[in-house]
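FIELD: query
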Amino acid sequence: MSALAAVAAWLQPALVTALAFRVAAGTPDAPWLGLAALVAPLVALLAGARPPGRNPVTAIVAAVTVSLVLAADLLVAADAATLLGAARWQGAVLVALATLAIAMWAPSRRLSPSAVAMAAVVLLLGSGAVALAAGAPWTAWHRSGVRPALTFPAQSSWVLGGQRFARATTLRFAEGQRVVTLAAGVYRVVERDAATPIVREWRLAAGDALTLRPGDELSVEAGAHVRFEAGRRVPGAPASGVAWADASARGPRMLPLALGAVVTMLGGALALVPTPRRGRAAAAGPLVLLAATSAALAWGVYAAGVPDLVLGGALPAPLLRLPTAALGAPAGVPLALLTGVALLVLLVAAAVALRERLAAAASEAPELWVAVVVAATAVAVWPLDPWRVLTLALGLAAAAWAPARIATSSAGALAGPIVGGVAFVAVAALPAVAPGAPSWLEALTGYPALVALPLGWLAARAMPPDGQRVAAGG
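FIELD: result
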C-alpha cells in the first residue's frame, strides 16, 4: 500500500472538521488535538508491519471500529444537511449510498491516493482564499484575540434568517436577549436570578419569542430553528477574544485530557494506518497529512472571527459557512461548494482505505462491508456528536486492535485485544453506571484508552513468542 493510501484511512472528514470546529470554539484541548492528529499517523507510518493472520476478536473489533468511524463521517454529512435546511437522515443516507457504491468499485483503490491528495490541497487553498480577505492566520488570531466581546454581527445568518441546531443544546446567556422561534418545538428555560432556580418549559409555535435574562439557560431540541438579536453576545461563546485565545483551562489541569487525546489518537492510528511501501513516494503521505492538518487549523482560526459559526454545533459549519461570511456570496458560495466536495472526496477515499483495513483484519466479503455501512448509517440518523463517536472509535481501536500489532504470538494477539477491549468498555460505561463519579475521572471517561491501551499492550506482550512456547512444549 502506498503512503497516500495509508493516510487516507486517517484523514476522515470527522477529524478534519472537528479540528477546525474546536479551534474556532476555543476549546482548551484544541492545540493538543492538532498536534496529535499530525504526529499519530506519522508514528504509524514508521512503525513495523503488523503480524500476519486473523483472529475472531480483532475481526469483531475491526468491524465495530470501522462502523463507528464511518458513522462519525456520516454524522458530519447529516450536520451539513442541517446547514442546508434538509433533514439529517437525508444527508446521512445519500452519502452512505455513495460511499457504499464507490468503495466497492474496483478502480477506486487506484484512484483513492490521488483523490485524498487533491482534497487536502483544495482545503489548504481554500483557507488561502479566505486569507486574502482576513490576512495571515497569525493576524486573524491576533484580531480575534483582542475582541472585547463575541457578538452576533448584523449580517449573521442567525440574525437574518435564523439557523438550526444540529443536536440538542443548552445555551447560557451572559446578557439579556430576545430569541424568536422559527419552528414549533419545546423550549426549556432555567431562570437563575432567584435563590432557587426556576424551570419553565414552553411549547412554542413558529414566530413566538422568548425573552432571556442574564444568567438564564435555554435548552433546545435537535433541529430547533431560532433567530437571535444582532449585537448581543453569542450564548455559550467565550466571554471575550482573550478568553478564546488563552483559555484558563489550558494549564496543568489540562494534562490528563491532553494525554488521553494523544494516547487515543496514537493507538487509533496504529490500528487504522498500515505501514506503507518504502521509497521516494513515501514522502507524499506526510506532506498530505501536514497540508490537511494545517488547513483544518487555519480554517478554525479564521472561523473564530465569526463566533456564531459554531453555535449550532454542526462540525462542518466553520468550513461551509465561513467563505460566505468572509468573502461575500459571489465568491464565498463557489468556495463553500468546492470545500464541501473536498470533504466528500475525503470521505470516499477514507471509506476505500477502511474497507481494505477491514478486509485485512476480518474478511473481504462484500456482505461484511454492506453490514458495516448499514450499521454506520443507523447510528448517523441520530443527532449524536461526531467527535465523541470518532474518539470512541479510535479509543476502541487503540485498546482492542492496536495490541495485536505488537504481539509476538498468536496467543498475545488474542489476549491483548480481549483485555484492552474489556477495560475500554468498562471505563467508557462508567458515567452511565456511576453518574456521580468524581470530576477527576473526566480524562478517563472521556478517553478510556488512556487506561485500556496499556493494559491491552501488557497482555499482548506478556505471552511468550510462538517459537519459545513450542520449544518449551517440546
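FIELD: remark
The beta strands are 163-164, 169-172, 177-181, 185-191, 198-204, 209-212, 217-220, 225-227.
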